[in-house]
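Summary for the steering committee. The consortium agreed at its last meeting that each partner would contribute one worked example illustrating the joint modelling workflow. Our contribution is presented below. We chose a case with several input lines so that the handling of multiple components could be demonstrated. No manual editing was applied between input and output; the record is shown as generated.
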Amino acid sequence: MNTTLYYKSKNIALNVLIHLLLISVAVTCLYPLLWMVSSSLKTSETIFQDISLIPKQFHFSNYYFAVIKGDFGRYFLNSLFYTFSVVVGIIVISSLAAYAFSRFSFPGKNIMFYMFMAAMMIPIPGSFVALYVLLNKLHLRNTPIGYILCMVNVGLSTSIFLLKTFFDKMPKELEDAARIDGCSKFGIWWHVALPLSRPVLAVVVVFNALNVWNEYILALIIFDNKKYMPLQVALQTFQGEFVTNYPLLMAGLTVTALPIIVLYLLMQKYIIKGVTQGALVG
Amino acid sequence: MNLKSTLENYSFVLPAVIIFSIFYIIPFIWVFQLGLFDWDGILPTKAFVGLNNFKEIIFQDKSWWQAMTNAGWVTLIALTFQNALAFLLALACDREIKMKNFYRVIFFIPPVLSEIVVGMAWRFIINDVDGANIINRMLVNIGLPQLVHSWLNDPKTALTTVALVHSWKGFGWGFLILLAGLQTIPRELYEAARVDGASAWNSFKSITIPLMIPVITLVAILTILGTMQAFVLIIGLVGGEFAGHTSMPVLRILASMRYSSRFGYACAQGITFGVVLVVISFIQYRISQKAKQA
Amino acid sequence: MRFYPKNFKLFLTILSVGFFIFSFAGCSSQNSCQLKPSVNVWHWMTDRQPAFEELAKRYEQDFGVKVNFELYAPSDAYSQKVRAAAQGTNLPDIFGILGEKRDFGSFIKAGHILDLTAYMDAEQGKWRNSLFEKALAVNEFPEGNIYGVKSGVYGVPIDIMTIQMVYNKDLFRQLGLDPQNPPQTFEEFLSIGKKIKGSNLQGLVSGWGEVWMIDCFANNYAFNIMGKDKVLATIKGDSPYTDPDWIRVLGLFKQMQGGGILANGLVTMVNKTAEQLFANGKAVFAFNGSWCVNVYKGMNPKLDYGVMMPPKASDKFPMAIWGGAGSSFIVNARSKNKEEAVKFLQWLTEKDQQTYLSQTTNNLPANKECLVQIPQILSEFAKNMEFATHPNIWGVSEFPAVIETLDKGIQSIIIGEKTPEQVASEVQKIKDRELAKNKKK
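What follows is the complete predicted structure of the assembly.
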């Protein structure tokens, strides 16, 4: 990894300044998370009276309640399933489309691309009702497939945009080499374009995973059956109409945030491995 | 072009186009034509009012334009403060420094947290009435008591405070994408420049910036789109529209749908909003095209 | 350098297909399971779900009908779900409508709601007479109503509530006030502000970041200062908002702000924040509804507080408070289990069930015959029910744009940006505009 060093700064003052900046930003990032965790360990009464970061008593029972009473297990699996399906679906569909927009030419290409771009910018208010009616007509309401397809659509435009920007920048030599070797278009996409775009794909994965994981209103409207509900919907029951059980809510939110953090930890390696490895071979 | 090749090309975009047509275009058309009606969202009958909704939004709806101005202000802060911070941090982490991985993970925690949590946590931190008033206490501790202020409760500062919190939540994304972009710049270019005797600033100006323009544009466009549509954070931080000072377009649309039961009007607002966003993004795209050519 | 090993992709495909098959199979078996009669209820009341489930169990034991209570929270999301389901005519057997009378009327006109008048009046009005009139009135459309709905009763209240002021007795003692004698007049109330200014306590807290709570407070004083008839006349458009009486109402807010009796940042508070401040003993007064009893109990069971009417600003007319039905249920007119649904609602509003609900969820029962041991504080909320009114029973509705301008204007007065006269003329301008639009129709 030594080749990634591009200049050493002999200026110690600059280094110190940089580290100061990094640390102070890191602290502001950590504090709310710590607040969330520490609140989850307090009780409903003490959470407002005790404002310190370290609770006087640790009530891990909140996590027990959140997971067991809230039936988190099943909702957790549902969320995992939806997130996984949507992310896989988006990666395949959007990378195919982005690659085509970047490398091929066919009639209507620009119009289609601008349509996707426009969709990114024009949010549809009340789209929930529209989607509900649509899914109803397709008999896909109250089914996982319906929800997954809707969520795939939600992330399509931005993912295509991200990937096309990247594919445009990608050097063509490898693809040309593969084509000369007799690779089909799909083969080039699968063997050359996708691996090279790992950093951007990682961003797409994290972006869409986050969207699906944190989504709740569409799920609440589309599903009538509790067994299909994702995690976020279950969390809302802790945020009661009149009685807010803050510590339980915080415990639930902490549990909810963990998988995404784990996913990010896994993905961020790919972002850093970079394109340089392997691309300059040959 | 032979037929087989063209068909193959189409097959690449087919799944995306199919899903898009069904799940975006159809609802879009439904919502679009609803903007021409006066409907409360429940009755089976609607009244056709043509462009009246749009006329009302453009000429009479003061609260709408206040919301747009507020959104513009928050977006401006995001584009400058948030993205500058993201870029600085990306540059810092691009080098070989200790704890690089640690920082990368930490900086991405804000985007991961849900907006509700962020709103609640920051209200707790900033608010002097029902929170811990930490910001003001810190200011006193570092010797700046004259800066102590009721940040969230003063109508003059509330919006900017909200904008800063939003930036806090959002910079992680810009950081991530900019870092990915920086990582794809071949190191050899910098080595070559160093060998030629170029200073760090020169390298930055002539290598980094030009190669990063598309990525910077991407981040700018995504920032604008994300910030203009913020609203959950506002409810958590200031309870709502604060007599209009923290109105945002999405809040206005929701108000039309729920409190006024004017679904058609809400759709018209949504269309207007979308048009503004498209225009802004288009202008930005053109600017970046010109910059690339320069 | 593979992205995924080929086997992995195959494995993923099989896994995904497996999941899909599983989920399709699951959903089809669900539909064929509906042989026993059952009643589906959608509601938003998180804290009552356990109580509801217990009651559903008892009902099934006694009558053999299964009742499913499905909770969808928060209430905003619940509203959207109901509206979406209405579009697809997939409403459950029993549900609730959160919103104004106008929306209620629209649902009825769209054919979603069962007319319950016949059931109410059966057996010489047995069901109707068991419930508090004011609670029922919220669900009733009188003859010749402006919404164009056939007159009748369309919903059933399952509890009642009032919105009044509460005060912290401990803090009263601390400030040298008599906890048994809360302020009766507005002047007394304002004078307490001076004592609060010096201390590090907050005065009145309420969720005035949410506009409807401001509306409630303003409206109470409007009734007090100019009387119900003039207020309704203003709504009808026969009297302007620029009338001196209205300016006096708006001026009250200015007086409160100047007197220091309002909490700082009142305009940025949602009701939950206000509840938290009051429960922690940081605020002396709160403006809240009787549901707060359960909330305060959860946050601080030792809180020593009392209920009071908003202190009157005028002796000409009685002080009014908002009250009536707390939560109400309606029956889906298109439901296949209409009769069972109605029977269940009748059972739910009977004495025993109402007592159970009241005891477990600390809400006031809708059933008049409830001889129940309700906590002292709840009975104080119930005491002033005779002064209660509610926008849904006036027979007229103000334009939402006008309400919004009025409430936002009051917020502006509280933060010192506008004067009462300015707000009054702004509101009247919007009112004129809306009236003109209406005439065109």
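Residues 242 and 424 of chain C are 5 Å apart (CA to CA). The radius of gyration of chain C is 25 Å.
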